[in-house]
Write a structure and sequence with these properties.
191 residues; alpha+beta; six-stranded antiparallel β-sheet; five-stranded mixed β-sheet; 34% strand
Length: 191
């Protein structure tokens, strides 16, 4: 009671379809989750290693987020873009959006730029500030745990598509933080 417990969340190949087809955007994702005595869970360490891109992103709670490329490590941070009309939005594809698809496509139509990249890559681009929003409507915790802390430690926000914080909600939305409410409100149809 009251003790912190930990467990690892590992995705040996995130972007399996890319890996199988020879597309170099795949990674090994490793995260450490702390479980508090009250049952709450938080990712406290994350690594996304992409050998085909020669990059490794990593973060730990309170220590910032970093990327290593060609042997050089640098601290990363999200963009400061403040409107969706100026935003670059990355997503996986249009599958699994269900009744949110129309609202999502409207958001894309009003964005500055959109790209269908998906998997870990789009979320790491948010953490680096190259993309402002990354959205995937269906994911497992092993797809998101490492990404969650890297995005958060880079200054961004990571929730599910309904706006619940963390990687435990079945979907992933990464933003620079400034745009998060607009994205969540924009993607959820008003009843």
């Amino acid at each position: 009671k009251g003790e912190t417990q930990r467990y690892w969340v590992i995705d040996p190949i995130d972007g399996t379809k890319n890996f199988m087809r020879g597309v170099p955007t795949w990674a090994c994702l490793i995260a450490l989750v702390e479980v508090q005595g009250d049952g709450s869970e938080e990712v406290v360490v994350g690594v996304a290693s992409s050998p085909a891109l020669s990059r490794r992103w990593f973060a730990s709670k309170g220590q910032g987020a970093f990327v290593t490329f060609n042997g050089v490590t640098k601290k990363i941070s999200v963009s400061q873009v403040s409107t969706l009309s100026d935003a670059s939005i990355a997503y996986s594809d249009f599958i699994h959006f269900g009744d949110r698809l129309e609202a999502f496509q409207k958001m894309l139509n009003n964005a500055w730029r959109t790209r269908g990249m998906g998997d870990f890559w789009s979320h790491m681009l948010v953490a680096e500030g190259a993309v402002d929003v990354a959205i995937e409507p269906t994911l497992a915790v092993w797809d998101m745990a490492a990404l969650d802390i890297i995005v958060r430690e880079a200054g961004g926000v990571f929730t599910n598509i309904s706006g619940q914080p963390g990687p435990f909600g079945g979907s992933g939305v990464s933003t620079n933080g400034v745009l998060h409410n607009a994205v969540i409100n924009g993607i959820n149809p008003q009843g």
